[in-house]
């Protein structure tokens, strides 16, 4: 007997093919597009984001081709509070958030899943490139498109009500299938960057909301080497846009090493000073299998970033991850997602690194 499945349809090719596969498998599928902006025209230009009137129309057309019912759910207020305001607050506190990860955690698999279950659906299906077998999350076969990292914050219960139909397919295969099915989104460009920042100017977006506040840029000795208009405009590991007045004596580029929001100070230094091997994390979420080898543990520290062989120790309310080779640009506020081979075993929020 088939499941009642709510298919989240963004208007892109991945979610359209995911919905089509679930329907073809014999499940009772209903498509839903999430309206995430009170003013949808402001959320995307070109291939950015997934929040426009154009996207809702593309999602509806795809549902019509598949032959499933389709609805639009207004999630703008929740998205504003749980994703956009959280994004601004995290930068104001000197941290670097991942809004896509937060959207999965608080919108698609909290607000949407809760409503779906209340309406009698058994599961929510999305077009994420990741595998899910018996509630266990693992990487997609398409390593270049793998999205298990941004799903690593989900709980076992949430994963137990999720379906990711694309985990065994490459993006090229998904596009070819969309064309065969007559889906008009087959050649639609992928969304990228931050959907609610239409022009891609994150610093400008934050300055409009937090205001400009001049502060010093200092080197590791504390000497002032430049100034800025708000520490919220920087992230650890950043090289461009520093506007340093005094070049380094060795002529090498400088990178952001730390951000202090209280004093509005940005500290810069050489790339070598970014190297860390110990990462302190809070709020761990253990969502993988309880059994299995831990000899092949790795950690991923940003979306589509490198993976590092590691080991970890739990402490009260957190954990410390030791990596086998130095990582750079590790920013507080990002997620550290732990893997055993290709399988996600858990995640935690980065607090500091040394």
Would you mind describing this structure in some detail?
With 354 residues, the protein is of the alpha/beta class. Helices cover 26% and strands 29% of the residues. It contains eight helices and 17 strands. The chain has helices at residues 13-24, 53-66, 76-92, 99-118, 148-151, 156-160, 171-180, 202-210, and strands at residues 4-8, 28-35, 70-74, 123-125, 130-133, 136-139, 162-163, 215-218, 224-228, 255-260, 265-269, 276-286, 297-300, 307-315, 318-327, 335-340, 343-353. The strands form four sheets. It has a six-stranded antiparallel β-barrel. Strands 3-2-1-4-7 form a five-stranded parallel beta sheet, with helices on both faces. A hairpin with a 5-residue loop joins strand 8 and strand 9 (224-228). It is globular, with a radius of gyration of 21 Å. The termini are far apart.
Indicate the topology:
Layout: E1 4-8, H1 13-24, E2 28-35, H2 53-66, E3 70-74, H3 76-92, H4 99-118, E4 123-125, E5 130-133, E6 136-139, H5 148-151, H6 156-160, E7 162-163, H7 171-180, H8 202-210, E8 215-218, E9 224-228, E10 255-260, E11 265-269, E12 276-286, E13 297-300, E14 307-315, E15 318-327, E16 335-340, E17 343-353
Parallel strand pairs: 1-2, 1-4, 2-3, 4-7, 8-11
Antiparallel strand pairs: 5-6, 8-9, 10-11, 12-15, 12-17, 13-14, 13-16, 14-15, 16-17
Helix pairs in contact: 1-2, 1-7, 3-4
Short description:
The protein contains 8 helices and 17 strands. The chain has 354 residues and is α/β, with parallel strands linked by helices.
